Task: inverse folding
């Protein structure tokens, strides 16, 4: 596993620590889950946009591929 340093302001760090403590997890576990959820959401949004654009421009894409 690779590491990444993230600098948080005091309030965000405290909120993260409080949440992790309330859930019986480490702050690192909470952050990893949050990043994974964010990536999944963004990947879905990007995929949907790409599919919409590909559909809207299918004829042009076909012609460019010829």
Result:
């Amino acid at each position: 596993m690779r590491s990444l340093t993230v600098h948080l302001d005091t309030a965000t760090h405290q909120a993260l620590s409080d949440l992790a403590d309330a859930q019986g997890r480490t702050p690192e576990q909470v952050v990893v889950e949050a990043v994974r959820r964010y990536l999944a959401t963004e990947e879905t949004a990007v995929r949907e946009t790409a599919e919409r654009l590909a559909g809207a421009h299918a004829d042009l894409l076909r012609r460019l591929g010829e």
Summary: The chain has a mean pLDDT of 94. The longest helix spans residues 27-56. The two ends are 44 Å apart (CA to CA). DSSP finds three helices and no strands in the chain.
